[in-house]
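Objective 1b of the project was to move from sequence-level analysis to a structural picture of ligand recognition. The entry below was assembled by the postdoctoral researcher (A.K.) and checked by the PI before modelling. It contains the amino acid sequence of the target and the SMILES of the bound compound, S-adenosylmethionine.
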Amino acid sequence: MGLTPTIAIVGCGPGHPDYLTAAAVKAVALAEVLVGAQRLLDLFPQHPAEMIRVDAKIEQVLEAITLRAGKRVAVLVTGDPGLASLAKPIIRRFGPERCRIIPGISSVQAAFARLGLDWLDARIIDAHGKDPDPGADTLTGAAKIAVLGGRARSFEWLKQTMGDRLRDYEIHVCEDLTLDSERITDWQPGSVLERTLSSRTIFILVKRG
Ligand SMILES: C[S@@+](CC[C@H](N)C(=O)[O-])C[C@H]1O[C@@H](n2cnc3c(N)ncnc32)[C@H](O)[C@@H]1O
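Corresponding predicted holo structure:
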């Protein structure tokens, strides 16, 4: 018989509490320890659990969980755990039998929903933590591209990597989805975007024609 899961990896949606699922709320309610970024912990202000605020450093998260062995831990992640989250290293370290994944509403889903588009044919690229591999060659021809781009350099990476091919796409800059500060801007290649983009930004590229 496997070990009882003691680590819930909980997808908390794109940010607004309306986008937390009931399953996420239930999983968090059972936890004795909550681990996550401050803005995710803030989704559960009344929770009596021990709150461990962590930044994106994975070792810090793994250490926090290790030190609470035997306790019911909920690790809060943005969006869905299956997309560029801490879930992978946590499962690798502690084993799948000790982890339970609670899906969440991804920021990618929220972006396509706002634009009224399906995303069956979308390529999803993670430019959040660092410049991604693959480069532009593998993106050529993609009908839709979603770029997780909340890092200061992500937009530069996108422009450099796609180059002139950007002109083949409508480019939607989706910031702070579901939050009061949500903003969706259409950007034309060659024009200047005169502001610092939010650390919660997705670029959605839709092929013209
Ligand atoms: C580490 S990834 C996590 C993705 C997350 N697991 C998901 O499913 O949305 C962080 C990236 O998610 C995107 N993101 C998260 N919340 C967002 C929001 N409210 N609006 C726009 N983009 C968001 C940004 O692209 C950010 O760079």
